[in-house]
Automatic annotation (TrEMBL):
<dbReference type="InterPro" id="IPR058530">
    <property type="entry name" value="Baseplate_J-like_C"/>
</dbReference>
<dbReference type="Pfam" id="PF26078">
    <property type="entry name" value="Baseplate_J_M"/>
</dbReference>
<protein>
    <submittedName>
        <fullName>Baseplate J/gp47 family protein</fullName>
    </submittedName>
</protein>
<dbReference type="InterPro" id="IPR058531">
    <property type="entry name" value="Baseplate_J_M"/>
</dbReference>
<comment type="similarity">
    <text>Belongs to the Mu gp47/PBSX XkdT family.</text>
</comment>
<dbReference type="Pfam" id="PF26079">
    <property type="entry name" value="Baseplate_J_C"/>
</dbReference>
<dbReference type="InterPro" id="IPR052399">
    <property type="entry name" value="Phage_Baseplate_Assmbl_Protein"/>
</dbReference>
<feature type="domain" description="Baseplate J-like central">
    <location>
        <begin position="180"/>
        <end position="260"/>
    </location>
</feature>
<feature type="domain" description="Baseplate J-like C-terminal">
    <location>
        <begin position="266"/>
        <end position="361"/>
    </location>
</feature>
Length: 362
């Protein structure tokens, strides 16, 4: 008996295929000996096919669950990026001891480095993006003599959660499109993009003469990075006091300069028609959120550039996109005559800039 089926064959189809191969002179009706025997055999076959399909899904990267995707990607030297701890700036009325601990909300922080008089770098003791969420008054875990003011003021290097499975899967497949080797573009993007706090990098060769490389980075929150993050990336890639010596990620004779992405403010003028009973005060915060979300999407697009062409293409802030998103804001009936920095045209940014919201007039 020849059986024709694949791993997605259903029980009903397989049973029908088997019965069609039985001589028509024999009783194949439901309840007959042949039918019952074939049905039992088909059930076992389907169970086998389900197991085989599951095993097949495990070993191919497009369907593998996280555990097996990691094993598959390891064959190419790729591993998911682990979670990291946020580093933040703390301001105190006195110089506090290195190693002293403070709490804010449900999180604890440890002083790890001094920036200036009364200013320190604190590391969140809990890894992940949660460390980026809280700013405000710090409470010392242990008594510190003379301490009367302690404030967590800003995120210096964002903490990151462990790399999401689907993001890792995409990175695995992207690895086939460009080969990372010895300081080429793909090598810089892979290694620098994997550094703590870095959300993306664009690479520019010979920007200041032969042998020079410029890396423009964005932080993992898709915002302009702090100087602290820029300095740490510079040290990891090509230390300033030994540039070109190959003591970091960069190969020997590559003189690398790391800078942060620029922020380009967009002033927005809106002509809104409100629904009955609504006014600007009712919708202002929602409008700001909608615009910030759009600009965040553009910044993410900037960060995920992979090719040479994408690295050398600037973002476009589109009037139509802003108007479309604002029309979904509750309380807004219509919108017209939108101006960006005083013009009705889209704004094309240079290749090293991301947009940020300026003032909004309505």
């Amino acid at each position: 008996m020849t059986e024709v089926f694949n791993l997605d064959t259903s029980y009903e189809d397989l049973l029908a295929q088997k019965l069609m191969q039985v001589d028509e002179s024999l009783d194949r009706r439901e309840g007959s000996i042949i039918f019952n025997a074939t049905a039992a055999n088909t059930l076992e076959t389907i169970q086998m096919l389900v197991t085989l399909k599951h095993m097949t899904d495990l070993v191919f990267a497009d369907t593998a669950p996280r555990e097996y995707l990691i094993r598959r990607a390891a064959e190419r030297g790729l591993f998911p990026l682990g979670s990291t701890k946020a580093k933040l700036k703390g301001v105190f009325n006195i110089d506090v001891p290195i190693g002293s601990r403070f709490s804010l909300d449900e999180l604890n922080y440890e002083v790890i480095e001094q920036i200036a008089t009364g200013e320190f770098v604190l590391e969140c003791e809990t890894s992940g993006e949660v460390g980026n969420q809280y700013l405000g008054t710090l409470i010392p875990v242990d008594y510190i003599d003379g301490l009367t003011a302690a404030e967590l003021t800003s995120v210096l290097i964002p903490g990151e959660d462990e790399e999401d499975t689907e993001v890792f899967r995409k990175r695995y497949f992207n690895s086939f499109n460009s080969i990372s080797f010895g300081g080429n573009r793909a090598d810089y993007k892979s290694k620098v993009g994997g550094l703590n706090g870095v959300g993306g990098v664009r690479v520019y060769r010979a920007w200041n003469g032969g042998g020079t490389v410029k890396l423009v980075i964005i932080n993992s929150l898709f915002e302009k990075p702090t100087q602290k993050l820029i300095n740490e990336v510079q040290e990891a890639v090509d230390p300033l006091d030994k540039q070109g010596e190959g003591l970091g990620i960069a190969p020997i004779d590559h003189v690398v300069t790391v800078v942060g992405v620029n922020q380009f403010p967009i002033e927005i003028t809106l002509n809104l028609t409100y629904r009955d009973g609504w006014n600007w005060g009712d919708v202002e915060s929602s409008v700001q959120i909608a615009i910030d979300d759009y600009f965040k999407e553009l910044a993410t697009e900037w960060a995920t550039a992979q090719t040479y062409e994408e690295d050398h293409t600037g973002l476009i802030v589109r009037v139509s996109q802003i108007e479309t998103r604002l029309l979904s804001v509750e309380g807004i009936l219509d919108i017209s005559d939108t101006l960006l920095n005083g013009t009705s045209s889209n704004i094309e940014l240079d290749m090293e800039s991301i947009p940020v919201r300026g003032g909004i007039s309505a």
